[in-house]
Design a protein that fits this description.
Helices cover 42% and strands 19% of the residues. It has 12 helices and 11 strands. Helix 1 packs parallel to helix 10 and helix 6 packs parallel to helix 12. By secondary structure, the chain is α/β, with parallel strands linked by helices. The structure holds 6-O-phosphono-beta-D-fructofuranose (F6P). The site of 6-O-phosphono-beta-D-fructofuranose has 11 residues, from loops.
């Protein structure tokens, strides 16, 4: 049958180890042999590969990060790099490639499978950003969300004591799931997210709601921005336009990616990992294993990465209603 190859790619996410464990154990249970590919696609190109046994994945379900290491491979974006990866797969007798990662990683898998008919790719959604279509959740999202909420609870103590406005910047790349839902869960006054594309200025909206009339402090969660409109941008605007307010910025950064995975992420990883082997046995190829309405689904990788995953507008309404 050849080997199943597993790699983790892109930003790490808590629950990746639980996914590696589930794929490995389920594969072995069903008569397959497994190889771990180190450092994502980089390790595939450079043949950093070794067999994984059931014992190799012991005692990792509770650990953050990824035992296989991860990378964002520039070489894999080139046809030459992918050709090299293909040759290494042949040499290592890997017949099915299991890719745990986010949007960029699954885009790589799709291009690779398009170039090589005989390559079977199975994707598992592993990213804190929750930005893959066709699945309600991605592995790592729940843990990151809980981490953010813990941090905001702490910031709230000092914000209240000093009567300050805090702009807290969270990750998500260009997706506002972490910001919007952490704002709801932490009782924040507002969230500034990229999906809110109406003409209105999200900061003006927040100020004009007159937050100071009833509250002596405020927390605004802001999605990071590649175009410079992160927490610092909004804080600077408030400092200039409303100098009466005392403003601070906290950028949570990479602490959002670490830590022991939540029970929810461990269970999701275990379910999707087992389902991925099931999918292989059913002859599925080039699909991502997702979860919808608490049921496992197979989503063509092309669909999972096709568009920006929409945020449910009712989440915006919930925050607005509850933050008066
Ligand atoms: O995709 C996961 C993610 O954490 C994003 O939220 C963030 O924009 C990015 O990765 C950060 O990447 P890096 O760890 O390479 O700085």
């Amino acid at each position: 049958k050849g080997y199943i190859g597993i790699l983790t790619s892109g930003g790490d996410a808590s629950g990746m180890n639980a996914t590696i464990r589930a794929i490995t154990r389920s594969a072995i249970c069903n008569g397959y042999k497994v190889k771990g590919i180190y450092r994502g696609y980089e390790g595939l190109i450079h043949d950093e590969i070794r067999e994984l046994t059931s014992e190799d994945v012991s005692n990792i379900i509770q650990r953050g990060g990824t035992i296989l290491k991860t990378a964002r491979s520039k070489d894999f974006e080139t046809p030459e790099g992918r050709q090299k990866a293909y040759e290494v797969m042949q040499k290592e007798e890997i017949t099915a490639l299991f890719v745990i990662g986010g949007n960029g990683s699954l885009t790589g898998a799709r291009v690779f499978a398009q170039e090589h008919d005989d390559v079977v790719c199975i994707g598992l959604p592993g990213t804190i950003d929750n930005d893959l279509c066709g699945t309600d959740r991605t592995i790592g999202y729940d843990t990151a969300l809980n981490t953010i909420v813990d941090c905001v609870d702490k910031i709230r103590d000092t914000a209240t004591s000093h009567e300050r406005i805090f702009f807290v910047e969270v990750m998500g790349r260009d997706a506002g799931f972490l910001a919007q839902n952490s704002a709801i869960a932490s009782g924040a006054e507002a969230a500034i997210i990229p999906e809110d594309q109406t003409d209105k200025d999200q900061l003006e909206e927040f100020i004009s709601r007159g937050f100071r009339k009833t509250k002596n402090s405020s927390i605004v969660i802001v999605t990071e921005s590649a175009t410079g409109k992160g927490a610092a941008y909004y804080a600077d605007r408030v400092k200039k336009e409303y100098p009466q307010y005392d403003v601070r910025v906290t950028i949570l950064g990479h602490l959002q990616r670490g830590g022991s995975p939540s029970a929810g992420d461990r269970i999701l990883a275990s379910r999707l990992g087992c389902a991925s082997i099931q999918a292989l046995m059913e002859g599925q190829r080039n699909v991502m294993i997702g979860i919808r309405n608490d049921k496992v689904v197979y989503v063509p990788i092309a669909e999972a990465i096709k568009q920006h995953k929409p945020i449910d507008n009712s989440l915006i309404d919930v925050l607005n209603e509850l933050s008066i």
